[in-house]
Amino acid sequence: MKLTLLLPLLAFVALGVLLKSGIGKDPTLVPSPLIAKPAPAFDLPLLADQEQRLTRDDLLGTRYLLNVWGSWCPACQVEHPYITELAEGGELPVYGLNWKDEAGEAKRWLDYFGNPYRANLYDPSGRTGIDFGVYGAPETFLIDADGTVLAKHVGPLDAQIFAETFAPLLTAEPES
Amino acid sequence: MPESRLSTPLRAVLLAAGLLLSSQVLAIDPQDFESPAQEARYWALIEELRCLVCQNQNLADSDATLAKDLRDQVLEMMVAGQSNEQIKSFLADRYGDFVLYRPPVKPATWGLWFGPLVLVLIGGIALTFNLRRRRALPAQVLADPDQEELDRELAQLEAEREGKEQ
Question: Which CATH number is associated with domain A56-176?
Fold first, then answer.
């Protein structure tokens, strides 16, 4: 009898613990199913010179960051100084995926803010973005030398997020 | 021009309905369907795919440009002869099961699928026990009531009450 009287209290506490565990989490973050899988194959023209193309396999052998951006994207301006800092650090090459943008606008954006990217893939239709599961710029992927997606960050990148999300994966020697 | 036979309120209602419907239709990009069956299949499919940008909307409802891109992708795959399952797994491979409003049954989603059923079962069992106990109580006391027994019980209850009040 005593125990059954306590049941509502216990249920309340259990519910409280369950709800507390959800506080502080971002419910809009979608975990990527691509982590630890091979990066989707891409074959796209370069933003700077659309006669030239770059494919996923061209980048095999290099561990790199793939940063998804667009000139229409305010949050991309927010992370731009940090992306520049990372690229200038030189430890990790940064490639850009110019997503759902217009080449003229994108080039003007780079002229104005500076171009930290080793090269920019030009994806105006957004099809390669869909292959990467991109649902909003900026997004940043860490891709290993063997073409495996190691990690993904959604939203503007900064030093703290880099240290938490990407840095621990960099201590391991690149495979192959 | 002949006088309209419709009353003013009726005309107002029709106008409102027309406006509502037109906004509904304008939210959709015009697509060329090969057949009504294909159109129905397209609608049923995008109804149960989630828009990743406005996450409480499905692809059919959302005006986000990504939703439009994904609708185009869905239609393109349908025209190319892919099955609903192929299209769904194409999207789930890229965006995760989250994109499916009807997630697959697997250990990670057991809570989602069977949780409500378990709760209803627990509630039902608790309710059954409670009702049985309640039914058992008066049945014992008043199994075969005769006037003498009732008087005795009544006297006892009144004595108890007076005892409490004093």
Answer: 3.40.30.10
